[in-house]
Specification:
The chain is mostly helical. It has a domain of 79 residues. It is 53% helix and 0% strand. The longest helix is centred in the middle third of the chain and has 47 residues. The chain is flat and about 115 Å long. Keywords: mRNA processing, mRNA splicing. Belongs to the CWC15 family. This is Pre-mRNA-splicing factor CWC15. One of its GO terms (molecular function) is RNA binding.
């Protein structure tokens, strides 16, 4: 059978060596595919976690500094007596804010700990995978087999097809 009815991917493959002039036709099968890699994004990556924790800490420090700067600016405009009261109020506000930040951090650490525990549990479950062959291919399961009246210990060959063990098993399995 001939393949002359099929289209040619590169019609002028022999002419490439001598004076090849490329055409503007590009076939999809000849184009490069899958040229970029996907990287895993995981909480367990050390470089990402360190940077994230540093960012969170710097944001909290910047917030506390802004509060102290605002309180310092307000203190400049007020009298000496009112500045003492304002500074006490500001310090109490800062203490409350720090307590809230500590509570948030403890909640986040608890959430991360529970996530890690659940992740380890799921990874241990998925590590005990079964192959696809065990689900697809038919296997001979342990079926309650009737013991034949013959007191033969090993399987012996019986010339009669209707009395053979295979035939009895077949009848028990498919014809009831």
């Amino acid at each position: 059978m001939t393949t002359s009815h099929r289209p040619q991917l590169e019609a002028r493959s022999g002419a490439k060596s001598a004076g090849y002039t490329p055409t503007s036709i590009e076939h999809a099968r000849l184009l490069p595919g899958h040229t970029t890699l996907k990287y895993r994004t995981s909480e367990k990556r050390n470089d990402g976690n360190k940077q994230h924790h540093v960012d969170v800490g710097t944001n909290e420090n910047m917030r506390a500094e802004e509060i102290t700067d605002l309180s310092a600016e307000e203190g400049e405009y007020n009298d000496a007596e009112s500045s003492d009261q304002d500074s006490d109020d500001d310090q109490e506000a800062l203490r409350r804010e720090l307590d809230q930040i500590r509570k948030r951090k403890s909640k986040q650490s608890k959430v991360k700990a529970t996530a890690e525990v659940s992740e380890t549990l799921t990874s241990s479950v998925t590590s005990q995978r079964t192959g696809w062959r065990s689900k697809v291919l038919p296997t001979k399961k342990n079926v309650n087999k009737k013991v034949s009246n013959n007191n033969t210990k090993g399987k012996s060959y019986i010339n009669d097809l209707s009395r053979s063990d295979y035939h009895k098993d077949f009848l028990n399995k498919f014809v009831k």
